[in-house]
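During the second year of the project, the team shifted from modelling isolated chains to modelling whole assemblies. The rationale, set out in the original proposal, was that interfaces cannot be judged from single-chain predictions alone. As a representative example for this report, we include one of the complexes processed in the last quarter. Its constituent sequences, exactly as entered into the pipeline, are reproduced here:
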Amino acid sequence: MTAISIRGVKKRYKKTFVVHGVDVEIEPGEFVVILGPSGCGKSTLLRMIAGLEEITEGEIAIDDRVVNELEPRERGCAMVFQNYALYPHMTVEKNIGYSLKVAGVPKVSRAERVMKVARIVGLEPYLDRRPGELSGGQRQRVAMARAMIREPKIFLFDEPFSNLDAKLRVAMRAEVRKLHRELGVTSVFVTHDQTEAMTLADRLIIMNSGRVEQVGKPTDVYNNPASRFVADFIGSPAMNLLEGEFDADGKFMHGQGGRLDVSSLNGYRTPGRKIVLGVRPEQIRRTDAGTAGAIPAIVDYVEELGANRLIHADANGSRLIALDTGTIEMPSGAPVHLSLGADALHVFSLEDGKRLNAH
Amino acid sequence: MIERSRTFDTVTYFVMAVGLIVVIAPFWVVLVAGSQSLQEVSRIPISLWPSNHLMENLSEAWRRADLGPKLLNSLIVAVGVTSGKIVLAALSAFAIVFFDFRGRMLSFWLIFITLMLPLEVRIVPTYSIAANALSPFQTILDTLGITGLVQSLTGIQIGLSWNLLNSYPGMILPLIATATGTFLYRQFFMTIPDELVEASKMDGSGPIRFFTDVLIPLSRTNMLALATIMFVYSWNQYLWPLLITTDRAHYGTAVMQLKALIPAQNGTPDWNVTMAGALIIMLPPLLVVAFMQRWFVRGLVSTDK
Amino acid sequence: MERRAYYRKNSLPWLLLAPQLLLVLIFFYWPTTQALYWAFTLEQPWGGGNSWAGVDNFLAVFADDRYWTTVLRSGFYAVVSTALSMAGALILALFADRALKGTGLIKGIFIWPYAIAAPAAGVAFRFMFSPEAGLIGAINKLWPGIWDPSTIGWHALLMVIVCHAWLGIGYNFVFFLAALQGIPRSLTEAGAMDGARPFRRMLDLQLPLIAPTTFFLFIINIISSFTDSFGLIDTMTEGGPIGATTVMVYKIYFDGFKGLDYSGAAAQSIVLMIIVIALTFIQFKWVERKIHYS
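Output from the structure prediction step:
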């Protein structure tokens, strides 16, 4: 049985498609994060699962039952909204219990269940307050409690932490993860924050302009980005991406006359072939002038991060960012030599951005 | 204000004081004249201090203008218009803002175009309909040939007729047939975040449930504002009730009686009674506005009309 | 107008709309359409046949010099009463916006005229301005006959206009004050940092920034001078002396309901409707622009 199965789903608003055909299977109990820049269709996809948007084409099945024509309440999903969407005129208790009231659950057992979830998310002291009297974090908890109380088959999260400050966001992340461990409910979580995505997900779905770019475990996606887009989007600071072509000797020409010896890329080095070469900042080392394969560069500026630093350098017109742990003074304009980790090179097609090499 | 300048503060107080006098003078004159005796009110120049004949003037005005039943009529009309408007406008704005259906824009424009022409401007045509409010339907049936058809089949002649002259519906319904309230609700409904609607969908409630459980409680302030505006509007109606009530004794409203209280050209100039009557008649809406000021100001500004 | 979250039902919205639409159709669209019909036909008052008259009714109305006098007078009435009322309300709002200690209650009182029925204000002002009574009329004791709205036309018109302006103060005040309070504090602060003193800020910052509201109120006031003037004129002057205070709505009422010239009144109604629609249209256009700016 699959918890959620999305088959050839498309979404059109008026005349433009915003989701171009998505196929994904989500297993029971999985925590899946849909990640992508704003406007990539991730929220639309989530809302189609919830039943808040009509599905233009394709089908969505929950527990192997096609739900295209079902109302949101019939799908067994609960949702946590970006702006919490709490009813401003109801107390916390009423907010949490509202879905039970609509479903006709008697008052006594309603109160009991509200108490239970309120205890889980630590809201007991606030049951009589209204949303307006709560802090952002507390509102967030109300929104979660409201979703939990229905004991849904699926949790849907639509960028739920985007209105919280950084510290609170980290705390809520941990809490969501813990809740998921305890309840084991299938969850789909939409965000544009890659750190949030990496830390929460069992599996990531990366979306870009209405299409799925890659599906996989966070580490796989990080280590083997399936496309130039994913490579650029995942990881902070972003992967260095150099456009260029191979010369007759099989050297990689980039920038203004820069040549790289990339013998580890045997098999791709057809002379004249245009590619995008990617390397993560942590795979670039500072090295001595004499080292074989060292790339001479000029320091542009250094970004101090505390534990380490980022060297922004210019290598023959190509910009490189290297993660460095050294402490030597590096003034702007100073020469520096960099070496690329040979087995950490990513090769993407210049035309469609697809990954060419496998690790 | 950021900086305090003593002279400018003085100017401010001075202007406010002058404004207060201008605004309050007519009220003061009504009160003062209404409390004086005939001799006092006829004095030239008149004393600007109240006297002690208020009660007798009030009761004389009450008697002369038959204010008991007239105030009751005014109240019936005002409450009818206000409550009718609050309910109908909420329903129609709900449909226009929260539903996607064919004819949504058409309905929107059908209702909102009525903002363009106040009742006073279309008084002649509206009056004509009052004799028979169902005449549009009769005409439609006639033109479609249904009247003739039914008559030839059953021998019954369809004659739809509902005379609104001298009736409460006649005084109330045309005042409800405007877009003011719908507009106010719409403005407010538009500010309800989409996510709130969606949350209630996820919670399993349908449109009616959402309307009663979420929208109505959230609209309370706007309802109070609308109620104030509509109460003042309908209590103060003059031209329309004047036309539609030929039977003044039974259906006349308080405001209509004001003219009857004015001293006749060559009669006793008992303005004291006139002013006492005016005082009674202007008081209800004034009290409503004074008490509801906070909500009403918010509502008035957002109706844009 | 665009929302993302809709309910998709087909009959329910019509059910919700039905009462309002029905009322609007019966009491707005049907009679307005009929007025058009009448304006182009000649009807015997209250029943009897009506014959096609084309634009004859309009020509008859336009050929009447008194009609044009009425139109001009209505225009004069509209502009002067609007200017008076708005200027007064604006000055009060500008100073009330400073929110000095003790002015809160006064602000509330400035709204009171809104609550008053036009005929009630009419009666009160008629007394205040009456040549026989002891207020304004008291100057007749010093200079006999210097003030007499019951015989001197422009006195009467002035009296009605002043009363109308007073009635509008409350409404205009509310809007002006709201507009002034809607000006972001940071702008006022920026003005202060630039060295503008309070009075300068009024002229250079506040007035230009509330221009949209001023325009909106201008149109609303002009329209209301056409519509709300009836109650005043009927209680104060009955259009007299010798028609000196007869404005368009009053003439329509008089011709149609007293003179029983239904077709003529219908034609006049059409003209008035066109004027009001044109004004409203301008205002809608302006409101649209206002939204684009912000």
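Chain A has eight helices and 20 strands. The interface with chain C takes residues 52 of chain A (CB under 8 Å).
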